[in-house]
Design goal:
By secondary structure, the protein is of the alpha/beta class. Helices cover about 40% and strands about 25% of the residues. A five-stranded mixed β-sheet has the order 3-2-1-9-10. The chain has a five-stranded mixed β-sheet with strand order 13-12-11-14-15. The chain is globular and about 65 Å long. The chain binds adenosine-5'-triphosphate and magnesium ion (MG).
Length: about 350
């Protein structure tokens, strides 16, 4: 057995195999602090909510944090920002640890192989991902998983580009970041991230239209389509403008980073994943922009993951199974050598 884990700014998703299927367990990466009282506890217990008590406070975790935030007129807190542990959230690490423990569960066997995703260093933000990566690795190792880490963009390649020998460009447009990896035969040639994703779109649309961020996000996630005629001044109109700006920015930076390397002379397919690629019309618009940009590499086909939200978690599982296979092979070699 092996597992994959995608730790994202908005969603934490575990993947594992159940016979021929891959099953996903998912939680929102969020929590809400409430004053502890017997009444609150009774209510939470009866609704089977994931919560803990700490220092006389109750912390509601995951999906339910948003539901209870509305009931209590508060804002849910988010342990991560821009793809990594948020430095301004003092309770970030214990909260992520609890959500990860819940999503991942106990290992099925001793030293079960686990592969987790981490973002690549962003090129436009003054931060690096090392601390986040080490903490997440330590959380998983303490749960006794035999832990490996891969770049989020490589996770997309593992998940979507097996038919191309894991050669291609993997792009994950998430909530906090956009991660990009170019790989040749499963080996990263270039990896970077950009400090813009769905959160950036929500913020920009909220600033320009004056609508609350949650409202903008809900409109975006509820059947919003790109490339349609929209009413000027509507939130859909503003969403289209910022989606367009995000794509232009990602492609401009991709071109800039490609100029720094000497990629192999092959055709690269492109796979798009992450929750922010979900609106209808995203693939068409991105493809047009990418072809117009005349990149330094040759692009063959461009596809969107069948399940964009689960692509990185699926890729992590494939990577974990590969490690597991290697370890088993090594085991056989060692055994036969003895
Ligand atoms: N149907 C949808 N249409 C548009 N956007 C969506 C949809 N569903 C989710 N999203 C957006 O996708 C983002 C979450 O995607 P994802 O789970 O891939 O991010 P993440 O992995 O948590 O973040 P990151 O990789 O940046 O750390 C959010 O911005 C969310 O609003
Ligand atoms: Mg992600």
């Amino acid at each position: 057995m092996a597992k994959g884990l995608d730790i994202g700014t908005m969603n934490i998703i575990c993947s594992e195999r159940e016979e021929e299927d891959v099953i996903f367990t998912q939680q929102r990466n969020a929590f809400l602090e409430l004053e502890s009282s017997d009444l609150t506890k009774t209510m939470l217990d009866s609704s089977k909510v994931l919560y803990i008590e700490k220092d006389g406070k109750i912390f509601v975790l995951g999906e339910e944090a948003f539901k209870f935030a509305t009931i209590f007129g508060k804002d849910a807190r988010r342990p991560m920002r821009f793809g990594i542990i948020s430095p301004s959230e003092k309770d970030a690490i214990p909260m992520i640890k609890l959500i990860v423990e819940r999503v991942l569960g106990e290992p099925n066997n001793r030293s079960e192989v686990l592969c987790i995703s981490t973002p690549a260093d962003p090129i436009d933000l003054d931060m690096n991902t090392l601390y986040h990566k080490k903490i997440m690795e330590a959380v998983a190792k303490r749960m006794t998983y035999e832990t490996h880490v891969i770049d989020e963009g490589l996770g997309v390649i593992y998940s979507e580009l097996s038919d191309y020998d894991f050669t291609g460009l993997g792009i994950s447009v998430g909530a906090g970041l956009t991660n990009v990896t170019l790989a040749y035969l499963a080996t990263p040639v270039m990896s970077f991230s950009i400090g813009r994703g769905g959160d950036w779109i929500d913020e920009q649309v909220s600033i320009t239209t004056g609508l609350p961020k949650d409202h903008v996000c809900a409109t975006k996630e509820r059947g919003f389509r790109l490339g349609l005629e929209v009413e000027l001044g509507s939130s859909e109109g503003a969403l289209s403008i910022y989606y367009d700006a995000l794509m232009t920015y990602v492609i401009k930076n991709l071109n800039r980073k490609l100029a720094e390397i000497t990629p192999p002379k092959v055709e690269f397919p492109v796979a798009l994943a992450g929750g922010s690629v979900m609106p209808d019309g995203f693939l068409k618009m991105f493809e047009r922009k990418l072809r117009e940009a005349k990149l330094k590499i040759d692009i063959s086909n461009i596809k969107r993951a069948k399940e964009p939200l689960y692509s990185v978690a699926r890729g992590c599982l494939i990577a974990a199974r590969t490690h597991e296979g290697e370890e088993m092979e090594e085991g056989i070699i060692v055994e036969s050598a003895v």
